[in-house]
Design goal:
- The chain is mainly α and 109 residues long.
- The protein folds into 2 domains: 45 residues, no CATH class; 42 residues, no CATH class.
- Helices cover 57% and strands 0% of the residues.
- Helix 3 packs across helix 4.
Length: 109
């Protein structure tokens, strides 16, 4: 049986503690690592195939470079609003901000 395992966390800063979110991710990662110890190495898919599989299901993958675009957009929003920091509150807004930053920088969307 093949599978894709993703471990991490997503909590609103006002509702969760970093220590708790980190613990959640560490527990999940420990379970995945225990499972993959016995999986033959040739059964592992390379990252580009995993990404393609996820995208084929209609799910958008946000990678590290996308997070850099998001950080820039949030920094610009904070400056425009005259606040110390700003975070988008929903996925649609975050994805739109990433796309806008990519377009402005000339990167492909």
């Amino acid at each position: 049986m093949e599978g894709i395992y993703v471990v991490g966390w997503a909590r609103k800063a006002s509702e969760g503690l970093v220590g708790i979110a980190r613990h959640d991710a560490e527990v999940g990662a420990a379970h995945v690592l225990k499972y993959v110890q016995d999986v033959p190495e040739n059964k592992s898919a390379p990252p580009h195939e995993i990404k393609r599989h996820i995208e084929a299901k209609g799910i958008r993958v946000v990678d590290k470079s996308d997070l850099e675009y998001l950080a820039k957009a949030e920094e610009e929003q904070a400056q425009a609003r005259g606040v110390a920091w700003f975070k988008f509150s929903d996925d649609e807004s975050m994805l739109a901000a990433i796309d806008e930053q990519k377009e402005r920088s000339g990167a492909l969307v």
